[in-house]
Amino acid sequence: MVYVHGANEERDIDPARIPPGQILTTNFPVLHHGDVPYYNNMALWNLRLFGLVEEEVTIGYGEFMKLPMREFTNDIHCVTTWSRLDNVWGGVAVSTIMEKIRLKPEAKHVMLHAEQGWSTNLPLDDFMRETSLLAVRHGGELLTPKHGYPVRMVVPHLYFWKSAKWLRGIEFMAEDKPGFWEQHGYHMYGDPFQEERFAEGYGDDEEDYSFIFNTPD
Ligand SMILES: Nc1nc2c(c(=O)[nH]1)N[C@H]1C(S)=C(S)[C@@H](COP(=O)(O)O)O[C@H]1N2
Ligand SMILES: [Mo]
């Protein structure tokens, strides 16, 4: 039996699903750097696929919402130690997006670009896992603004900071490069089952901690 915060009860959950150092909750905390973007004209929204591709592609909102959608159920593991199991997402499989472009063979890494210059990096193979998606719904409802409306990335096998909210660009790169939190000491890969929370040496400076708690609602 595992105690679940939010539900305030013990539940019969396979402990193997819970990475080390994580606490289960049924709440859905909101964490990000900066402000929640506000959209008053979706005609101005687009998603740009660029970098090491034969031809750059831009997908508008109307076109995106007409792509084939699927349901994905997976677990969230946040580096700040909460986990939330069995999230039902609706969205577009990464394979559907990849049909729009032709990658150059040198492409091995991906940078996800969000509104306001926020970014996060991951290997191409992890981006392309069958479980990775571009979500537009959570729990059957359209994403709320604070959880990433209109489109957020979901990469369930890595810590949740790799799941960029307010996604606007997918950049294909030859070499790995640190995104926003990675430049501030978070791990380059972020496997929750290996507890890859921070880069080596993170936390040695008092300044490091100012970023962990900078999480306005
Ligand atoms: N654009 C953007 N996406 C982001 C972040 C951010 O600051 N900006 N924070 C990440 C972090 S650290 C976490 S834990 C999750 C939180 O998602 P949630 O607010 O939906 O729980 O979003 C991730 N995606
Ligand atoms: Mo986070």
Automatic annotation (TrEMBL):
Superkingdom: Bacteria
Domain Oxidoreductase molybdopterin-binding per the UniProt entry, residue ranges: 33-181
Gene3D superfamilies per UniProt: Oxidoreductase, molybdopterin-binding domain
One Pfam entry name: Oxidored_molyb
Stored InterPro entries: OxRdtase_Mopterin-bd_dom, OxRdtase_Mopterin-bd_sf
Ranges in coiled-coil conformation: none
PANTHER family associated with the record: OXIDOREDUCTASE MOLYBDOPTERIN-BINDING DOMAIN-CONTAINING PROTEIN, PROTEIN-METHIONINE-SULFOXIDE REDUCTASE
Protein name in UniProt: DMSO/TMAO reductase YedYZ molybdopterin-dependent catalytic subunit
Organism: Paenibacillus methanolicus
